[in-house]
Design goal:
Helix content is 37%, strand content 17%. It has 235 residues and is an alpha/beta fold. The structure holds zinc ion.
């Protein structure tokens, strides 16, 4: 289990951590940070699940990018939310095609948020939106869904699994969950089979919320087919 964020932040102040990308001294080093500054690429699992929106990734889930994702998500390096979220901003801007960028993070269950001491996709979305706003874009975060614990899906058919996955996401109510004024961009950490993003897309479309695409930090190599580079505007 990662350390509570305040404790890990304090430890970083006392003794700066190693770079999570290469193990060098200090925080995220210039060389590893520079690897995030790449044009987003289209990514698609094989097979593509029904309803999966177009997906853009920073890159393959391998090497430095994989190390950074794991350090952020599983090892409590919360400070990586800023550079990783910022790296997602060009892909989000490209998908929104000049319109307002409304980011909807794929939610984690309460138990997962507790064990990580953070809502890691929400933090990425906030960072990406802040980067976009600082570049003059209209951007915001709509946390529209919450995730329920999923029952064991062993023995279910693919269709039954998809139905169960969609049922695991519920629309949130309350402040900050107003219906978005336009299409949203989904945000998740890693694209593997695409079933999570397809389930979330299905849930949102069931209440007539439009989706212009999804952005992820990384896509697994085995299932990733690079279709081509998106011509992203770099904010
Ligand atoms: Zn490094």
């Amino acid at each position: 289990m990662p350390l509570p964020a305040p404790v890990s932040d304090l430890l970083d102040l006392v003794l700066p951590s190693a770079c999570p990308g290469c193990g060098g001294p200090g925080q995220l080093c210039h060389s590893c940070h520079a690897q995030l500054a790449v044009p987003p690429t289209r990514a698609a699992p094989d097979p593509v699940p029904d309803g999966l929106p177009p997906c853009l990734a920073i890159g393959e889930y391998t090497g430095v990018l994989r190390d950074l994702v794991l350090a952020y998500k599983e090892r409590g390096r919360r400070g990586l939310a800023r550079p990783l979220g910022a790296a997602l901003a060009p892909a989000a801007a490209w998908l929104a095609q000049g319109g307002p960028v409304l980011l909807t993070p794929v939610p984690s269950t309460r138990a997962a948020i507790r064990s990580r001491w953070m809502d890691h996709t929400a933090l990425l979305a906030r960072s990406a939106a802040a980067t976009l706003r600082s570049a003059g874009y209209e951007a915001g975060v709509s946390r529209l869904l919450r995730a329920l614990p999923r029952p064991d899906s062993a023995g279910l058919s693919a269709t039954e699994r998809a139905t169960a996955a969609a049922a695991a996401y519920q629309l949130r109510a309350g402040p900050g969950t107003a219906r978005p004024p336009g299409p949203v961009v989904l945000l998740d950490d890693v694209l593997t089979t695409g079933s999570t993003l397809a389930a979330v897309a299905h849930r949102l479309r069931s209440v007539d919320i439009e989706i212009c695409g999804a952005i992820v930090l990384a896509a697994t190599r085995r299932r990733r087919g690079v279709i081509g580079e998106a011509q992203a505007e770099t904010p």
